Amino acid sequence: xxxxRPVLLKLCLLAAALALLVxxxxxxxxxxxxxxxxxxxxxxxxxxxxxxxxxxxxxxxWLLRWQGSPLRLGQVWQISYISWFLGSFLPGAAGGDALRAxxxxxxxxxxxxxxxxxxLLDRLLGLAALLLLALGLAAAMPAQVLAQPVxxxxxxxxxxxxxxxxxxxxxxAWLHGLLAPLLARWPRLxxxxxxLVEAAGEALAGWRSNPSRLVACxxxxxxxxxxxxxxxxxxxxxxxxxxxxxxxLGLASTLAVLANHMPLTPGGVGVGEASFAEICRLLAPGGxxxxxxxxxxxxxxxxxxxxxxxxxxxxxxxxxxxxxARSMAASTASTAASSRPG
Length: 342
Description:
By secondary structure, this protein is mainly alpha-helical. 82% of the residues lie in helices and 0% in strands.
């Protein structure tokens, strides 16, 4: 029963978030149902989201391969979809990354630290691409952004976040040097921190010698986010949101996706909807907040549909791992039997 308590707590939080969205008029159930009664926009959005997901898989596969990981593209696809599916019920984006780390730790015994670093780098590249997209869209409408102090502050935070990411590596090295005397009290923790810093240094040396790889990954991430934003714009138009331009919807979508990464509720439910609705209201005062919030909630449902292959991957991956373990055990037993003296 104790093992069920975290799940029950998350379900209660999810139900409470949904109830509050409807209660405060951020989401209209009728608008969401109407989107699926006319499924053209939803199906087109689903296609865009699926293509964007494949680009994310490809980016992580590139990073793993360049770090010498033995994981094949099929395995990377399965692990990615499993983490997305299960991560949809965990707070923020870190839950899915933790699941990826568990699988990588099990599947890459010889290259664990470099493989784990690819998860961090993949997350940073994806976030950097999203921040670049937000800044690019804001730069296309400076007057509208500067006219709203809240929007200007959000764009400023995006710029500061991008700058912080560029400085994160030297800052991490500086912090390691500063904390090294304190970590000496815990040898295992100190050894782990040193291993991470050394592996990060080796990885960075490889990226510096071939920066085109990082540029390619960043470009793939940017294209993936453009497809996601296009999916949200399609859903908005399909639900009758006509008071905003495509650029305004794109900026609101990008900032809402950024807000959805915050680990406040399971899957970010409520955070993305409220953020999108408020930003759209700032860009086009007088619009229906319920219509705006319903767009993101519909997008959330369509995205969850696109993650359903992760449920299948979860079952097949476990069976494949079990079959591999049985095969290795049988091979080991056969080798041991043949080596015994007759």
